[in-house]
Design brief:
This protein has helices at about 20-30, 45-60, 70-75, 115-125, 145-160, 255-265; strands at about 35, 60-65, 75-80, 85-90, 130-135, 160-165, 170-175, 180-185, 200-210, 220-230, 240-245, 275. The protein contains 6 helices and 12 strands. The two termini are about 30 Å apart. Belongs to the CapA family.
């Protein structure tokens, strides 16, 4: 989704466009960087992508995955935290058939297996922790497709420490490669107007690294996921995101069963992840 509401009409499915004020809300809750490489990045063409970037820049919000120029695309996205340099890259599998001219390729970072591993390696050489986001996968599937597994492995081999997946609209499991590299194939929906129960369930993920300032080594200290539930309806402004474990208080009769399914599914590939009722 883009945030180009200052210059283009606000719109929902299938060509999304949000008001630019949504960026203010993100900053208010502490968001430091946003991923703007999704299958909806080009819903309003180059104009929409560019206007959305200008709205982000106007609010001093760091962004990754769609850029205003080739020069902008070459600037590494790095945030320093507690002595560690954390770098970010993001890519999407497609743009729903929307296209841009070759000379505007900077507006959309495509998952290109010949290119993204080189970019990840280049960023990893400059950082202590490298985070990579992929907008890919089959919608509504609870397990990753073979091409997702391959894409994640390529990112791992190139030096990504954590790979965050999205697009399937349901939560897919974690994978833990070693003591410093892991990922989740899909975080699912967080705020969503979709009505099927599987699409009203999402997650908040906590990834914590222990970083040794002297040796520059980083190791995964904690992988946790809190399942969430989209209660109410966003069409009548009653929608809100709550902890799934509290779903019964919002009319979700099988909240505990859904929570137990999360515990089972998230550990399909690794038992290193904790599924918790709440994040402290």
């Amino acid at each position: 989704m883009i945030a180009a509401g200052d210059h283009l009409p606000l719109a929902g499915y299938p060509t999304f466009n949000a008001p630019s004020e949504i960026i203010d809300s993100l900053k208010h809750v502490g968001v430091d960087i946003v991923n703007n490489a999704t299958n909806h990045t080009l819903d309003w063409g180059a104009e929409g992508a560019y206007d959305s970037i200008q709205a982000l820049k106007a609010r001093d919000m760091m962004y990754v995955g769609s850029y205003e120029s080739w020069e902008d695309a070459q600037k590494p996205r790095i945030i320093e935290s507690k002595g560690a340099k954390v770098g970010f890259l993001s890519y999407a599998r497609d743009a729903n058939g929307n296209t841009i001219s070759e000379d505007q390729g900077y507006l959309f970072s495509l998952i290109d297996e010949d290119i993204f591993p080189q970019e990840i390696k280049a960023l990893a050489d400059q950082t202590d922790i490298t985070m990579v986001m992929f907008h890919t996968g089959e919608e509504y599937e609870y397990l990753p497709a073979d091409y997702q597994l391959r894409t994640f492995r390529l990112a791992r081999d190139a030096g990504a420490n954590f790979v965050l997946g999205g697009h399937p609209h349901v939560v897919q499991p974690f994978i833990n490669y070693n003591e410093s590299q892991a990922g989740i194939f899909s975080h699912g929906n967080f705020i969503s107007g979709q009505v099927n129960i599987e699409n009203k369930l999402g997650s908040i993920i906590e990834v914590r690294y222990a970083f040794n300032k002297e040796t520059k080594e980083c190791k995964i200290d904690r992988l946790r996921l809190m399942p969430t539930y989209n209660a109410g309806s966003y069409s009548d402004y009653t929608g809100q995101v709550v902890a799934l474990i509290d779903g019964a208080d919002y009319g979700l009769a099988d909240a505990q069963a859904y929570f137990d399914d999360f515990v089972y599914r998230m550990q399909t590939y690794t038992n290193k992840v904790q599924v918790v009722e709440y994040l402290d």
